[in-house]
Amino acid sequence: MKHKLAQLIDIPMDAWSEHSIQTDHGFVSVMVKRSATQYTAFINECPHQGRRMDYAENAFLETPEKQVVCPAHGATFDPESGVCLAGPCAGQSLKKLITSMDDNALYVAFE
Ligand code: FES
């Protein structure tokens, strides 16, 4: 099912931001990054122990190589695939969402 995440203008360029959306099962937190060519979105939940990937409002840790870092126990994730590259959940993955645009807004699809 497709959900409106945010207006495109509210998604910063080259930085992760957090957006909550309401689904039939309650609120879901989504992390999204906008680049010049694409939007990448994951459920904002580490596969290790389910902790949030942001440590404060719209604040995410990244390595110098732009891998995303879980603030709880330091797992690092590929910023495009969401695969955990190192840490306690190596080989697992953030849940990637399918994105689409319509009417100057970004939508994500859940299974
Ligand atoms: S909850 Fe993310 S590394 Fe442990």
Output the keywords.
111 residues; mainly beta; Rieske Iron-sulfur Protein; 6-stranded antiparallel sheet; 5-stranded antiparallel sheet; 11 strands; 0% helix; binds FE2/S2 (inorganic) cluster
Mean pLDDT: 95
Strand content: over 45%
Look up the CATH topology.
Rieske Iron-sulfur Protein
Spans of at least 5 consecutive residues whose pLDDT stays below 50 are none
Class per helix and strand makeup: mainly beta
The CATH architecture comes to: 3-layer Sandwich
Annotation field: number of helices: 0
* Associated small molecules: FE2/S2 (inorganic) cluster
What is the number of E strands? 11
Give the name of the CATH superfamily.
Rieske [2Fe-2S] iron-sulphur domain
Question: What shape does the CA trace take?
Answer: globular
Strand order of the largest sheet: 1-11-10-4-3-2
Q: From the alpha-carbon coordinates, what is the Rg to the nearest angstrom?
A: 13 Å
Q: How many domain regions?
A: 1
Oligomer: single chain
Structure description:
- The strands form two sheets. The protein has a six-stranded antiparallel beta sheet, with no helix packed on it.
- The chain has one domain (2-109): 3-layer Sandwich (Rieske Iron-sulfur Protein).
- It is mainly β.
- Helices cover 0% and strands 49% of the residues.
- It has strands at residues 2-7, 16-23, 26-34, 39-43, 54-56, 59-62, 68-69, 76-77, 84-86, 96-102, 105-109.
- It is built from no helices and eleven strands.
- The protein is globular.
- Strand 7 (68-69) and strand 8 (76-77) form a beta hairpin.
- Bound molecules: FE2/S2 (inorganic) cluster.
- FE2/S2 (inorganic) cluster binds next to loops.
